[in-house]
């Protein structure tokens, strides 16, 4: 009797194992991760936005502490290179909104390629040699103050934007991130310069309107929220959509013709202190469950299988912005713009138009 | 009992004989029993803690890449870049303009305020004496946000005015805006020192002028101010120094129009290049040090000649006060109330209001949007909750430990006749000349690369050490003055009774200073609460404090959280300030 | 053997030569007073003995150990010298009770608690402070504080007891009692005491030996009577007592010594061997040594009484003799006019001009 039961048990296990091949690997990884006990991340994403995702991970894989450090895009970059030099690698995963810097780190060999089951669901433009993964796709758009600028007057194309900024009512009431001081500002602006033909016209109009520039999103949002500024462009749309939920005065608009989108990029550190936990977490982050939690908190998923009642995924966000979303591809062209000479040239041109005349 | 009575002659002859042997005596001082080793070790450790970050900065400035990168070579490229960068000179010019502007405004206002509260019979002196110091204790970054929220282009007050006259007649996002706001919050520094100098003036000189027919204001100009001239020079140097180090105000108020000062130029550099350019940041930091060091030395020199304190809520001047006419009283009180409104009520009120509303500005009735959500949010996010708790921990326990450290250093320098005292003097000054942001960065490097420090990097210990160094100048002066208040005879009588110097410290000095130590603890507590720049580079999970959280949250636009944190910071400061007033703590800037 | 030996102490403060080779010694059971004007170096000397100040040159021995020797480069710290120092301001520790103040010396020397308590109570009782043991210094009067300071310095039986102007902070009435009391205590306990004072009455009353200092040098050392009655220099003579000073020319021809002016002449004694004939000189006559009479006698000098002033316990007479002006005292008022003053030659002390 015992033997039969034992056999049945084994058979059962084999069956279960066979039906979820990936899951069996997962289990193995989980055990190893549990013995490591901790996964550490350096990130540039607000803790509040990822809290539910972290909680879901901990619920699914108990016994693993998640050490989440929101140190900002510069912080992530600084830490990775200085820790690598000091042989004091502190993070398993590095997750940043500065796509170009992540690419730079990858090129310097500070990340390691990882093969993960869930990687299959990530589109090609969002997977750089299994070293860097895009974890979200966030459209870039315009935020405006509903009380100052009526919804029907808000520009919906770049040409309309230029026309609006040239008008009198836009004087001293437009804002944007400063590419000199804001990494995402620089990223979006250089992307625009590459992929559109009227970027410098936009900048010129911005300068002529006495455009105000900011180092970070906080003050931009405040200025729109309060009506100090009527409109700000090249703002992270996913943030904007979230802000609009709690700020009645704030509205969001996307370009009908083409909407750029950036992604938060994650990499697995070379010499990670808890490699198995890191891989497990990364896999979870890319899985439907993890992505759903991110989407729930306003970070649209890069996958296409998220329930619309939870949040946006690639398809639904594309629809929301008018169907012409153009994500910034995760490739080496991101770095060619980091060349000092090109950088200085871009910024000088920008500065001249916005600060000195325009 | 059989000693001979000597005549003058004999005595003179014998001493002449002995003097004939040596023309000039060889001076030697035995320092047996003077705790020489204790002094040397403590001051040596201090020198190490102060010079290590500076040495690292200097070294880094002469490299062409971050020092830990394999391809870093010695080079002047960082210097040549910075010194030929137009933006650098613009930032330098702006820094000089802002610093000078603040000094020109704050010093006279502070002097007049000191005069009114010390030498005249102004009504309400006792209340004013407490309130006028408040701006000093509020964190600059909290102030900056507070001004944005209250008198920014869409601030509460601005919109009120706009509703009346159709436009907002001011703009705080300008150099003059920064100067005005900065001056308002720097007046207490001028007030404090001039007040201390005026407190001890005898009143007969002023009274003579009065009886000769001079009005109170003429007395101020012709008699009182000249008498406190050294104090005026001192506060001018102090305000210039503070102007150079300003970071929070220009960070927020200079942002929209791209106004940069040296400290914010440092931040800008790394974004400019896309990669960290620590070498250039080090160059700018050293430029700031070179500019501020002379002012720090000047202060030290001036401070030597006159040291006094102003007590919070203490009694007014002992001298007979000058009588103010009723018009003068009214004008003076109006002037003070106006300044307090501008320097305290506006920013603090702005923060408090903004914390509890979720929409404001054009076309919004704030009272329809009251909420507790922002505060609640603090409790829900672990890193924020940790930040609040860590700030409280650091400023209570941490400040207490810092006081012990400053006391140990104070004792090392107490009646120290050795050469180590000169070293101590300079070590105390150096950190004062470096912006807190850079000290934090330098300590981040030290904690990263020095083996036995590495395990501490991600604990509050790293922040604690950085804060202790940043507060060194202030803390040491506090402790030193406590120690100097003890009459030397109390120590000498212990020694002659048989106590070694160590026992004297233990049984006489430390017990007597105990009440003063509480005051010092509270002042250091307030210093730690309001610090924001030092922890920025050290920020990681486990080292969050309110100040650096606020700065890092700027990037994600979480203004609600930032304001809620600012509110908590204000509450903590108010509690500490209340304690200080209750204990009658003497305040030194 | 003397308990305290001080040899050839030189002390500079910056470029100021404060002590210029002072030597002195003192025995057990005696009081040595360091007397002098302010700036004479007396307090500095005391602090050198205590070890609070280090001289540049010289040698100091306390008891059987040499605590300072500049040739051997030894200087013992104050706590190692086994001295007691009573400060002018008493320097009682404000945060400790009288008992704790007094007992500190014993505590440092590791005396067991019961023994310590016993000795504290003993000495407090002896000085009349037994009931104040648990008070704090700010609850005591000046006189009580002084006695506590003395207890504190005595209780561990130091080799040498140093007192820095111990009576100057007391009011006049207390002072007189206090100095009697200190003198007796020191004699009774057989201490070697060094007392610094600028008050000559105190020095004369309390001391067994006085060292008069001027400008960092010994002027004269001797018993109070020696110094008062046989001062060896003009400075010593004028420092003590209340005096008449007459300036004139000295004449040593003839049987005795004489000092004279244009219209006056007095017989006196040479106190300094360097007084020479026909040279300028100064004579010091103590006021109490002149007695004034209305009737003439052969050794009395005819003088004019200008005025007399009432001082309560006596009358002060203002006298002139030609160009000479003098003061004297007496029990009665006298009419202005001619009087006869008795000025014994042995009380006219003649010194050379400065």
What report would you give on this structure?
The complex is a heterotrimer of chains A (358), B (589) and C (354). Chain A is built from 15 helices and 14 strands. Chain A has helices at 2-19, 21-36, 47-60, 72-85, 99-107, 158-166, 183-195, 199-208, 217-226, 237-246, 275-286, 288-296, 314-320, 333-336, 340-354; strands at 38-43, 65-70, 93-96, 111-112, 127-128, 132-134, 138-145, 174-177, 212-214, 231-236, 250-253, 259-262, 265-269, 325-327. In chain A, helix 2 (21-36) packs across helix 11 (275-286) and helix 6 packs parallel to helix 8. The longest helix of chain A is centred in the N-terminal third of the chain and has 18 residues, at 2-19. Chain A is globular and about 65 Å long. In chain B, strands 1-2 form a two-stranded antiparallel ribbon. The longest helix of chain B has 34 residues, at 86-119. Chain B has 2 domains: 31-69 and 372-589, MetI-like fold (Orthogonal Bundle); 84-371, MetI-like fold, CATH 1.10.3720.10. In chain B, helix 12 runs antiparallel to helix 15 (278-305). By secondary structure, chain B is an all-alpha fold. Chain B has 26 helices and 2 strands. Chain C is α+β, with helices and mostly antiparallel strands and 354 residues long. Chain C has 2 domains: 4-234, 3-Layer(aba) Sandwich (Rossmann fold), CATH 3.40.50; 242-352, OB fold (Dihydrolipoamide Acetyltransferase, E2P) (Beta Barrel), CATH 2.40.50.140. Helices cover 24% and strands 37% of the residues of chain C. Chain C contains 8 helices and 21 strands. In chain C, the strands form 4 sheets. Chain C has a 6-stranded mixed sheet with strand order 7-8-9-3-10-11, sandwiched between helices. A 5-stranded antiparallel sheet of chain C has the order 2-1-4-5-6, covered by helices on one side. In chain C, strand 10 (209-214) and strand 11 (217-222) form a beta hairpin. Chains in contact: A-B, B-C. At the A-B interface, helix 3, strand 2, helix 4, helix 5 and strand 9 of A face helix 14, helix 18, helix 20 and helix 26 of B.
């Amino acid at each position: 009797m015992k033997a039969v039961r034992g056999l049945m048990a084994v058979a059962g296990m084999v069956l279960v194992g066979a039906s979820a091949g990936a899951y069996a690997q997962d289990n193995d990884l989980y055990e190893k991760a549990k013995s490591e006990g901790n996964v550490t991340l350096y990130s540039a994403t607000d803790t509040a936005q990822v809290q539910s995702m972290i909680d879901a991970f901990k619920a699914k894989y108990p016994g693993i502490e998640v050490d989440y450090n929101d140190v900002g895009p510069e912080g992530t970059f600084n830490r990775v290179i200085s820790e690598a030099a000091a042989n004091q690698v502190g993070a398993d995963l590095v997750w940043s909104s500065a796509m170009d810097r992540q690419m730079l780190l990858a090129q310097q060999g500070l990340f390691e390629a990882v093969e993960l089951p869930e990687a299959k669901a990530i589109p090609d433009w969002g997977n750089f040699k299994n070293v860097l993964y895009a974890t979200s796709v966030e459209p870039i758009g315009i935020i405006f103050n509903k009380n100052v600028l009526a919804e029907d007057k808000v520009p919906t194309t770049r040409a309309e934007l230029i026309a609006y900024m040239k008008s009198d009512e836009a004087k001293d009431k437009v804002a944007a991130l400063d590419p000199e001081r804001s990494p995402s500002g620089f990223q979006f602006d250089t992307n625009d310069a590459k992929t559109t033909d009227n970027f410098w016209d936009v900048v010129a109009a911005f300068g002529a309107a006495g455009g105000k520039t900011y180092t970070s999103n906080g003050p931009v949002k405040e200025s729109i929220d309060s009506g100090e500024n009527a409109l700000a462009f090249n703002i992270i749309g996913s943030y904007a959509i979230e802000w609009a939920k709690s700020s009645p005065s704030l509205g969001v608009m996307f370009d009908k013709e083409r909407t750029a989108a950036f992604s938060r990029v994650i990499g697995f550190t070379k010499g990670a202190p808890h490699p198995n936990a890191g891989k497990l977490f990364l896999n979870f982050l890319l899985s439907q469950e993890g992505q759903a939690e991110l989407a729930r908190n306003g970070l649209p998923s890069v996958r296409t299988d998220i329930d619309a009642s939870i949040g946006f995924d690639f398809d639904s966000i594309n629809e929301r912005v008018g169907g012409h979303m153009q994500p910034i591809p995760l490739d080496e062209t991101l770095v060619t713009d980091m060349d000092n000479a090109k950088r200085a040239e871009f910024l000088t041109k920008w500065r001249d138009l916005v600060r000195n005349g325009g | 009992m059989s000693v001979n009575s000597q005549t003058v002659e004999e005595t003179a002859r014998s001493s002449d004989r002995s003097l004939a042997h040596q023309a000039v005596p060889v001076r030697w001082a035995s320092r047996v029993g003077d705790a020489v080793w204790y002094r040397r070790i403590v001051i040596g450790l201090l020198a190490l803690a102060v010079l290590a970050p500076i040495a690292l900065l200097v070294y880094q400035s002469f490299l062409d890449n971050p020092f830990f990168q394999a391809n870093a070579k010695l080079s002047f490229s960082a210097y040549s870049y910075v010194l030929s960068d137009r933006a650098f000179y613009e930032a330098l010019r702006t820094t000089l303009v802002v610093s000078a502007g603040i000094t020109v405004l704050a010093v006279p206002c502070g002097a007049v305020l000191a005069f009114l509260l010390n030498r005249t019979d102004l009504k309400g002196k006792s209340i004013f004496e407490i309130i006028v110091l408040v701006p000093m204790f509020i964190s600059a970054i909290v102030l900056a946000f507070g001004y944005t929220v209250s008198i920014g282009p869409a601030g509460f007050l601005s919109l009120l005015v706009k509703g009346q006259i159709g436009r907002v007649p001011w703009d705080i996002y300008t150099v003059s805006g920064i100067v005005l706001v900065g001056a308002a919050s720097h007046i207490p520094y001028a007030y404090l020192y001039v007040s201390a100098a005026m407190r001890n003036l005898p009143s007969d000189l002023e009274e003579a002028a009065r009886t000769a027919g001079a009005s109170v204001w003429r007395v101020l100009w012709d008699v009182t101010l000249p008498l406190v001239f050294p104090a005026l020079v001192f506060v001018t140097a102090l305000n210039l120094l503070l102007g150079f180090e300003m970071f929070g105000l220009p960070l927020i108020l200079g942002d929209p129009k791209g106004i940069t000062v040296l400290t914010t130029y440092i931040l800008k550099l790394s974004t400019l290049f896309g990669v960290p350019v620590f070498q250039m940041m080090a160059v700018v930091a050293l430029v700031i040090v070179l500019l501020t060091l002379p002012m720090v030395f000047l202060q030290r020199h001036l401070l030597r000649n006159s040291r006094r304190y102003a007590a919070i809520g203490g009694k007014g001047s002992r001298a007979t006060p000058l009588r103010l006419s009723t018009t003068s009283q009214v004008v003076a009180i109006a002037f003070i109330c106006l300044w307090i409104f501008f320097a305290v009520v506006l920013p603090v009120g702005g923060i408090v209001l903004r914390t509890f509303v979720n929409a404001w500005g054009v076309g919004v009735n704030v009272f329809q949007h009251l909420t507790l959500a922002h505060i609640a949010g603090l409790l829900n996010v672990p890193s924020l909750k940790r930040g609040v708790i860590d700030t409280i921990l650091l400023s209570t326990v941490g400040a207490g430990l810092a006081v012990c450290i400053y006391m140990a250093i104070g004792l090392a320098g107490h009646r120290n006749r050795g050469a180590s005292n000169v070293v101590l003097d300079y070590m105390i000054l150096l950190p004062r000349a470096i912006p807190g942001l850079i000290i934090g960065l330098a300590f981040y490097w030290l904690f990263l690369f020095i083996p036995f420090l590495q395990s501490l990097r991600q604990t509050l210990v790293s922040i604690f050490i950085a804060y202790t160094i940043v507060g060194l100048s202030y803390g040491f002066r506090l402790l030193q003055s406590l120690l100097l208040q003890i009459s030397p005879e109390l120590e000498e009588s212990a020694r002659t009774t048989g106590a070694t110097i160590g026992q004297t410290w233990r049984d006489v000095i430390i017990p007597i200073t105990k009440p003063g130590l509480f005051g010092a603890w509270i002042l250091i507590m307030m210093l730690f609460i309001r610090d924001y720049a030092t922890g920025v580079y050290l920020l990681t999970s486990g080292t969050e404090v309110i100040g650096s959280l606020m700065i890092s949250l700027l990037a994600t636009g979480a203004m609600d959280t930032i304001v809620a944190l600012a509110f908590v910071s204000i509450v903590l400061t108010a509690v500490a300030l209340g304690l200080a007033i209750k204990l009658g703590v003497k305040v030194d800037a | 053997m003397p308990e305290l030996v001080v040899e050839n102490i030189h002390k500079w403060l910056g470029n100021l030569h404060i002590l210029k080779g002072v030597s002195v010694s003192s025995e057990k059971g005696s009081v040595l007073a360091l007397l002098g004007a302010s700036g004479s170096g007396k307090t500095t000397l005391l602090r050198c003995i205590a070890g609070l100040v280090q001289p540049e040159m010289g040698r100091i021995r306390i008891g059987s150990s040499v605590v300072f020797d500049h040739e051997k480069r030894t200087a013992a710290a104050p706590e190692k010298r086994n001295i007691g120092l009573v400060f002018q301001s008493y320097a009682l520790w404000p945060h400790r009770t009288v008992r704790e103040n007094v007992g500190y010396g014993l505590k440092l020397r590791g005396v067991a608690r019961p023994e310590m308590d016993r000795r504290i109570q003993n000495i407090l009782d002896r000085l009349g402070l037994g009931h104040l043991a648990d008070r704090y210094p700010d609850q005591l009067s000046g006189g009580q504080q002084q006695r506590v300071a003395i207890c504190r310095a005595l209780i561990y039986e130091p080799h040498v007891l140093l007192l820095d102007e111990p009576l100057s902070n007391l009011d006049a009435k207390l002072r007189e009692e206090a100095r009697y009391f200190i003198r007796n205590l020191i004699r009774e306990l057989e201490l070697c005491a060094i007392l610094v004072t600028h008050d000559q009455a105190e020095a004369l009353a309390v001391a067994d030996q006085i060292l008069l200092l001027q400008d960092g040098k010994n002027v004269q050392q001797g018993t109070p009577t020696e110094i008062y009655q046989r001062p060896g220099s003009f400075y010593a003579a004028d420092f003590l007592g209340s005096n008449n000073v007459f300036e004139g020319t000295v004449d040593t021809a003839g049987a005795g010594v004489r000092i004279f002016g244009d219209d006056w002449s007095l017989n006196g004694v040479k106190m300094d061997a360097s007084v020479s004939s026909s040279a300028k000189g100064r004579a010091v006559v103590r006021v109490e040594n002149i007695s004034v009479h209305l009737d003439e006698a052969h050794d009395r000098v005819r003088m004019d009484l200008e005025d007399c002033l009432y001082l309560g316990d006596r009358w002060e007479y203002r006298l002139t003799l030609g160009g000479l002006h003098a003061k004297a005292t007496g029990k009665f008022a006298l009419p202005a006019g001619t009087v006869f003053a008795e000025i014994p030659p042995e009380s006219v002390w003649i010194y050379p001009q400065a």
